[in-house]
Amino acid sequence: MKIDLTDTTASKINKALVKARRAIGTPAVGMVLTLVVVTDEENAYDAMKAASDASREHPSRTLVVIKRVSRSPRDRTRSRLDAEIRVGADAGSGETVVVRLHGEVADHADSVVLPLLLPDAPVVVWWPVNAPLDPAKDPLGALAQRRVTDTYAAEQPVRELGVRADAYTPGDTDLSWTRITPWRSMLAAALDQVACEVKAVEVEGEEFNPSCELLAMWLGDRLDVPIRRSLSAGPGLTAVRMDTSHGSIVLDRPDGSLATLCIAGQPDRAVALKRRDTAELIAEELRRLDPDDTYASALRFGVDRLNAVGEAAEPAKGEPVGAAAAAGAQEADATPVTDEAPEPDKAAGTDATPQAKAEGASS
Q: What b/e sequence results for 176-214 when a residue is b if at least 16 CB atoms lie within 10 Å of its CB, and e otherwise?
């Protein structure tokens, strides 16, 4: 069911929501949170589809805020609020309100959104594109317990990570971090299988991919070893190689779907490690509303502490791969291109042994 309102108010929107729910017999008590999506017209469709799909796991009221740019000075002085209400099958397992702000009211989006929030329910704000420099100080971000950004959508994604680190406030998170959850779980599980000391790590992936940098920063923060960042043609993350006292551990995903886990002395294993869509990422973020301390620690590790990015050479024809490559890497001397990482700050909790920290980071 869809209802269009032109030149309306927040009060009229609330009344229309109640009327629509009664018309289809759907109560509002089953919704668990309010998801506020701040986007533009170009990205609104994809964002609403992702939010609708995520609502099947987390029934919620989705408020899509679109600030319309006025074309003339006269239009900029005329405030107008238009709304589109979707309930039932058109809104997944919740309800969706698309609000378009015209004129001066666009500068006061928080005043429009506040009366539309579900009472006594947590609030999550998501910026698919054009996130503010400091989400916690943004008027809409200040209403939320969790603030979700996506550095992958920025013009300079790696530099954007530094901005996120400088402005970090507990409750902030980023979809580039969410994308590497399966990688972190798989690497932590691999280290659980063998008693070893990690000596050096190489992370291979696309250039200007913030998820690759975040994974390298997480490994550097947790293991306190030299990290080498190398490039590949992608897609996304393609490989992680760890040189350990037990031998080489390699997690290789050349096609963006199926990965191979190679541990010295063990047979190769095929593992599912597909690239996930935005709806799955948002659904994962909505599962937890408390601050992500692991993300904060990895973010503060800093991109500047990784080595200068170098081109990753393609394997020569006939070069061994899989278990053979892992066995060969065990015999070769590791030659990290960076100096030893500086002594970690005790306050950051990095004085634990590398093995114990890797196990604790898989949450």
A: bbbbbebbbebbbebbeebebebebbbbbbebbbbbbbb
Q: Please state whether the predicted TM-score (pTM) of the whole model is above 0.90.
A: no
Query: What gap in Å lies between CA 172 and CA 300, rounded to an integer?
Result: 13
71, 119: one domain:
yes
* Cα(133)–Cα(30) distance, integer angstroms: 34
Asked whether residue 167 is domain-assigned, the answer is no
pLDDT of 134-166, one tens digit each? 999 999 999 999 999 999 999 899 899 999 999
The verdict on 204 and 98 lying in the same domain is no
d(CA 60, CA 31): 5
Asked if residue 29 belongs to a domain, the reply is: yes
Q: Specify whether the backbone of 247 is left (phi greater than 0), alpha (psi in -120 to 50) or beta.
A: left
Distance CA 28, CA 60 (A): 9
129: helix, strand or coil: coil
87-114: burial string, b at 16+ Cβ within 10 Å, e else: bbeebbbbbbbbbbbbbebbeebeebbe
**Residue 100: which domain range?**
2-149
Element (H, E) at 189: helix 181-193
Query: Does a cis peptide bond (omega within 30 degrees of 0) precede residue 320?
Result: no
Residue 89 lies in a domain: yes
- 70 assigned to some structural domain: yes
For residues 133 and 194, membership in a common domain is answered with no
Report how many domains make up the chain: 2
Q: Are strands 172-174 and 237-244 parallel, antiparallel or unpaired?
A: unpaired
Q: Which residue has the tokens 């009060």?
A: 11
Mean pLDDT score across all residues of the chain:
82
* Residues contacting residue 187 through CB under 8 Å, at least 6 positions apart: 219, 240, 242, 251, 358
